[in-house]
Amino acid sequence: MAASGSGGSRADNGYGSQPPRRRKGPGALATAYLVIYNVVMTAGWLVIAVGLVRAYLAKGSYHSLYYSIEKPLKFFQTGALLEEYLLIAKYLPGIVPSSVVLTAFQVMSRVFLTWAVTHSVKEVQTEDSVLLFVVAWTITEIIRYSFYTFSLLNHLPYLIKWARYTLFIVLYPMGVSGELLTIYAALPFVRQSGLYSISLPNKYNFSFDYYTFLILVMISYIPIFPQLYFHMLHQRRKVLSHTEEHKKSE
């Protein structure tokens, strides 16, 4: 998702008289590892999806479905931290254009919401907003990890590429809405309990108000989410239009 630079002469392109080096993709061993990782993550999010459907069919209601997928959700969403370090930072930029900063925010915000909000504030686990972001995450991640897997194998079906660069139009706002509503629902309980807050006086002469911190987290969505969303819209036009042009040229 990184933007490409404009053209220019060889002398003034920032690389002196030498052309820029192309980013190397992962080697055979790294590719095998990445394929396995992405297959496992795809399967994990499919397990979460099946768990949601089975729980819904068993209960006949969409309320409080979080408990049916709590453990796999925590495991596979936390597993995205490994992706952040090994995949995005080192390998995936050579496979698919990606904004490391924006993707890092997305990964970290989801891990934070999973553990520091939903896990820590038990009262919000029955909120419908939790199901909202869980469903959005699940569909998004199944598509995303499938996309990475087939990209690594150099055999990417158009349907998966289309889904990757189209369904986010609905899924991203849906997920962000669920995340923000869940944090908002947690605020009264955090304030009442003093969760994770540190008051003065103490020997470190340091104070921390988790309630205020959560408000700041919510505010941080204002500048960052539009960047991520419009960046993906730009990538959609770029990737899908290129695909259509390639099909016409064949």
Automatic annotation (TrEMBL):
Keyword Hydrolase: no
GO aspect biological process, one term: fatty acid elongation
Enzyme class per UniProt: lyase
A Pfam family hit: PTPLA
Pathway it works in: Lipid metabolism; fatty acid biosynthesis
Disordered, as annotated region: 1-25
A GO CC term assigned to this protein in UniProt: endoplasmic reticulum membrane
InterPro entries registered for this protein in UniProt: Tyr_Pase-like_PTPLA
Superkingdom of source: Eukaryota
Annotated signal sequence range: none
Keywords on record: Endoplasmic reticulum, Fatty acid biosynthesis, Fatty acid metabolism, Lipid biosynthesis, Lipid metabolism, Lyase, Membrane, Transmembrane, Transmembrane helix
EC identifiers of the protein: 4.2.1.134
GO molecular function, one term: very-long-chain (3R)-3-hydroxyacyl-CoA dehydratase activity
Segments passing through the bilayer: 32-57, 95-118, 130-153, 165-190, 210-230
Reaction equations catalysed: a very-long-chain (3R)-3-hydroxyacyl-CoA = a very-long-chain (2E)-enoyl-CoA + H2O; (3R)-hydroxyhexadecanoyl-CoA = (2E)-hexadecenoyl-CoA + H2O
Membrane topology term: Multi-pass membrane protein
Compartments where located: Endoplasmic reticulum membrane; Membrane
Database matches in PANTHER family: VERY-LONG-CHAIN (3R)-3-HYDROXYACYL-COA DEHYDRATASE, VERY-LONG-CHAIN (3R)-3-HYDROXYACYL-COA DEHYDRATASE 2
Protein task: Catalyzes the third of the four reactions of the long-chain fatty acids elongation cycle. This endoplasmic reticulum-bound enzymatic process, allows the addition of two carbons to the chain of long- and very long-chain fatty acids/VLCFAs per cycle. This enzyme catalyzes the dehydration of the 3-hydroxyacyl-CoA intermediate into trans-2,3-enoyl-CoA, within each cycle of fatty acid elongation. Thereby, it participates to the production of VLCFAs of different chain lengths that are involved in multiple biological processes as precursors of membrane lipids and lipid mediators.
Family as reported in the entry's similarity comment: Belongs to the very long-chain fatty acids dehydratase HACD family.
Protein name (record): Very-long-chain (3R)-3-hydroxyacyl-CoA dehydratase
